[in-house]
Amino acid sequence: MTDPLLVIVDAANVVGSVPDGWWRDRRGAAERLRDRLATEGLPGHDGPVEIVLVVEGAARGVGSAPGVLVESAPGSGDDHMVELVARAGDRRCVVVTADRELRRRVRELGAEVAGPRSVPR
Question: Which residue from 60, 81, 84, 80 is spatially nearest to 72, judged by alpha carbons?
Fold first, then answer.
């Protein structure tokens, strides 16, 4: 049996992709994203997925929800996501972000990438 698809979501980048006032409540915006992921998963991916939502800055401390593990990056969120991909080894992994440098770094480790529009809005 293979491990489920690992989906690592760059919360700051995904939340920041929609100008809906998220900057007034970064923690609340991350919680809403977590809840949408918990309810809807990752559209277009059949089969089991493990979703990890990486938060940083003012969103640190957001709790996990059924189906979504929330990790508060101790420093740079990008560095933490690269570390998660490195730890995944040969496991299939998708990183959701529009950050060009992060996309480059995780691709070098064998991860696939998807843009912010790939998650529920």
Answer: 60
